[in-house]
């Protein structure tokens, strides 16, 4: 029988986000506390839709991702997340989780961001937790760091929280919030060069980078200045500065990985061909700036008015990849019923 205050079933949708100031490196693996603040744009493409149904009679959680039963690490992470929600809600019910993800999983296109943002919103509602967006962001963070940002639409900053203090203080402070922008009509043109799963997970790669890369500390230190400059440029509607800072922050992050031992290299010849093309687009007078995540794909920030032209140029450079244009998208939300 349903317990009081619990919905028993809920469905939520969330979109991926692309960081312009990157999250790379944790200072607490268990709480998923990052080393640096990060800033992203939530997209209007590749939604994840997740339904959570409580099952009073079930001994285990049952998790289905795109129609196939989740196993191994993917299952373990969802169950650990549900355990956290159950602990908060004071309920022991297992759940049936069905998630439909339209983004290529594991391809450095932030499938864990939309996935855990949707799961946080759906699971909180199904288990009867009444959480505001800040609390949902904090909760989503525990599933995957970047998911904290997908709780919000448009541009969002995820605060690392204080480096000192108790774990509880850090947990409370580390959530995303919307970032005010001025007159900006941005697009992210995504060149999908390889939609297959990556060889090194971002979780493993960032741990190795923090532990072994002699470049890591200097990138992390410079990231704070990048963020301040980015926020000012967003407010001013200055897409050139937004793009310049995003591109250097991303290239710096990849430099930290290249210097890790052993090196982590997500960039491929196809990635470099697209980066060359972005330089040419800029030389032709169109403001366009690249960012890359834990995969070979390139996302190019430009004005929406230039997105068609940028996409056409990237099509030529992307060989047998595909190109799509994304705009700012909505935050995670419950679907009605
Ligand atoms: C980001 N990335 O800011 C960075 C840039 C990839 C490169 O967030 O371990 O899947 O689950 O917290 O969020 C990918 O890392 O890592 C990521 P976990 P997550 O978007």
Automatic annotation (TrEMBL):
GO biological process per UniProt: isoprenoid biosynthetic process
The keyword Lipid biosynthesis appears for this protein: yes
Ranges where the Diphosphomevalonate decarboxylase-like N-terminal domain occurs: 14-163
Pfam families per the UniProt record, alphabetical: MDD_C, MVD-like_N
Molecular functions (GO terms): ATP binding; carboxy-lyase activity
Keyword terms of this UniProt record: ATP-binding, Lipid biosynthesis, Lipid metabolism, Lyase, Nucleotide-binding
InterPro entries, alphabetized: GHMP_kinase_C_sf, Mev_decarb, MVD-like_N, Mvd1_C, Ribosomal_Su5_D2-typ_SF, Ribsml_uS5_D2-typ_fold_subgr
Keyword Nucleotide-binding tagged: yes
Transmembrane segments: none
Protein name as catalogued: Putative diphosphomevalonate decarboxylase
Taxonomy of the source species: Bacteria, Bacillati, Actinomycetota, Actinomycetes, Kitasatosporales
């Amino acid at each position: 029988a349903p317990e009081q205050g619990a919905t028993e079933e809920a469905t939520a949708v969330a979109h991926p986000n692309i960081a312009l100031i990157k999250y790379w490196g944790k200072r607490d693996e268990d709480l998923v506390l990052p080393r640096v603040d990060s800033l992203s744009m939530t997209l209007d493409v590749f939604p994840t839709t997740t339904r959570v149904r409580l099952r009073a009679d079930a001994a285990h959680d049952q998790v289905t991702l795109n129609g196939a039963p989740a196993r191994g690490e993917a299952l373990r992470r969802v169950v650990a997340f549900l355990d956290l929600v159950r602990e908060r809600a004071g309920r022991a019910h297992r759940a049936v989780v069905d998630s439909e993800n339209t983004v290529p999983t594991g391809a450095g296109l932030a499938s864990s961001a939309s996935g855990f943002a949707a799961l946080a919103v759906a699971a909180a509602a199904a288990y009867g937790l009444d959480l505001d967006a800040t609390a949902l962001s904090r909760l989503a963070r525990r599933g995957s760091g970047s998911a904290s940002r997908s709780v919000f639409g448009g541009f969002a900053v995820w605060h690392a929280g204080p480096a000192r203090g108790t774990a509880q203080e850090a947990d409370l402070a580390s959530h995303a919030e919307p970032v005010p922008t001025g007159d900006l009509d941005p697009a992210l043109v995504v060149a999908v060069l390889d939609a297959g799963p990556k060889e090194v997970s971002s979780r493993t790669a960032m741990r190795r980078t923090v532990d072994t890369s002699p470049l890591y500390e200097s990138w992390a230190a410079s990231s704070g200045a990048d963020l301040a400059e980015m926020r000012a440029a967003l407010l001013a509607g200055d897409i050139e500065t937004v793009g310049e800072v995003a591109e250097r922050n991303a290239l710096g992050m990849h430099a930290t990985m290249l210097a890790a031992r052993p090196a982590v290299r997500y960039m491929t010849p196809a990635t470099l061909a697209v980066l060359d093309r972005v330089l040419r687009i800029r030389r032709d007078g169109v403001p366009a700036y690249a960012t890359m995540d834990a995969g070979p794909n390139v996302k190019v920030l430009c004005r929406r008015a230039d997105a068609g032209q940028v996409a056409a140029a990237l099509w030529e450079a992307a060989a047998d990849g595909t190109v799509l244009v994304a705009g700012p998208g909505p935050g995670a939300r419950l679907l009605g019923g």
